[in-house]
Design brief:
alpha/beta, about 280 residues, globular
């Protein structure tokens, strides 16, 4: 029995099959935790969703920004962009079933002193607060009237700083941005959305969220995240494991085994030339 966390797939179905073969995944014994961005940019998002859904209780999913974007497009709240690769999902016979399943997924998952989210946890939140806010946003996704309001106002860079007094859409968007879009912030937790590159090129006034000490989370916990392909899996902190290794851009697809602390990777087969 083993538990593996898999980084951003983004429609790279063939590579996912190779990775599952490499780790010798056994659906009857093993558990897979997917760190978000299952879909988009890569060629086979529909097949990825169908496969992961078919794993049933053996697969856990935390949602990423591309997954939320798919929900907004699928329900007509946002138009699809030219560089999206979501058409197969949008025209699939089982579209409604897949989208309904996606709405029921998580924003945060914990397992054996490991915390898994798509982009991380801001240094201003305790684990208790992060869990509570994740549950709040999951409730929003699963409650039709809240879901409609959230999806119609999904993307925006404001507010860029958490405040306990935030309400409704501003509150939900802020929570979602921390869980699914965060890379850089300052010590008070104010987010930057412009920078997506390598850490060596970051603005001096900002820092990677995982490099800002968070005394609110027990040092025994390991944080696992995806989202930031430019890190190429390097955080220089054994407590912070970055699993987006840019498969969709010609890099690798990565899985981390929580039990033996080993990293497993397969090379990309397909190359998408234009980065987001």
């Amino acid at each position: 029995m083993a538990t593996y966390v898999i980084g951003d797939i983004q429609g790279c179905y063939d590579e996912l099959l190779l990775l599952l073969e490499k780790i010798q995944f056994d659906i009857k014994k093993d558990t897979l935790i997917f760190a978000g961005d299952l879909v988009n940019r890569g060629p086979n998002s529909l097949e990825v969703l169908r496969l992961i859904k078919s794993f049933g209780k053996s697969a856990k999913v935390v949602l990423g920004n591309h997954d939320l974007y798919l929900l907004a497009v699928a329900y007509g709240y946002l138009p699809a962009a030219k560089k999206d690769t979501l058409n197969d999902i949008l025209h699939a016979a089982d579209k409604e079933e897949l989208i309904s399943w996606l709405r029921k997924q998580r924003f945060l998952y914990t397992h054996k002193k490991h915390i898994i989210t798509h982009s991380g946890i801001p240094p201003i939140w305790s684990l208790k607060k992060a869990k509570r806010l994740a549950l709040e946003l999951e409730f929003v996704l699963q409650t039709d009237i809240c879901f409609q309001l959230f999806m119609s106002n999904l993307f925006g860079n404001e507010p860029d700083l958490w405040n306990d007094d935030l309400e409704a859409i501003n509150r939900w968007r802020c929570i979602a941005n921390y869980f699914t879009r965060m890379r850089l912030c300052n010590e008070e937790g104010r987010l930057d959305f412009a920078f997506k590159g390598e850490l060596k090129n970051k603005p001096e006034a900002l820092e990677a969220w995982f490099n800002i000490p968070n005394t609110k989370i027990d040092a025994d916990y390991t944080l696992i995240f995806g989202h930031w392909a430019a890190l190429n899996g390097i955080t220089n902190d054994p407590r912070c494991i970055a699993l987006d290794t840019g498969c969709v851009w010609g890099g690798k697809l990565s899985a981390y085994c929580i039990d033996n602390k080993q990293l497993y990777q397969v090379d990309a087969i397909h190359l998408i030339e234009e980065k987001e």
